[in-house]
């Protein structure tokens, strides 16, 4: 697969859509209008054409590119990696090795997060099992949460 070529046609839609207002693009993609504007300002989404009244008008390519961004976000890719993937998608004659490497790296991050979440689940199970029907002042969950020594639990998710 490392020698395969990537070709993403962001303009492919049946039927093609042109002259779409930002509200329609937002509805069709499930993306907020402000987010679409932000993607445009940061260069992740190409600038929209403007109508005679200076309103943004989007086409099929915008629809597909925004769908790509949304799907990558749902998969947990950070914005910088999505920007890199878009750059690779914009150069369809490039080998797929870089895309494969980005996906493999992200998979490793996801696996690490899953391991940490499984450890968190075991800790919660232990705390729940330790609680009896006593008063809140005797609750081991409150004691465990009050202990600041456990701040490391998801530190990697925060980038610590």
UniProtKB/TrEMBL annotation:
MF GO annotations: DNA binding; DNA-binding transcription factor activity
Entry keyword annotation includes Transcription: yes
Signal peptide, first to last residue: none
InterPro entries the record matches: DNA-bd_dom_put_sf, MerR-type_HTH_dom, MerR_fam, Tscrpt_reg_MerR_DNA-bd
Limits of the HTH merR-type domain: 19-88
Keywords carried by this UniProt record: DNA-binding, Transcription, Transcription regulation
UniProt keyword Transmembrane helix present: no
Designated name of the protein: DNA-binding transcriptional MerR regulator
Species this protein is from: Stella humosa
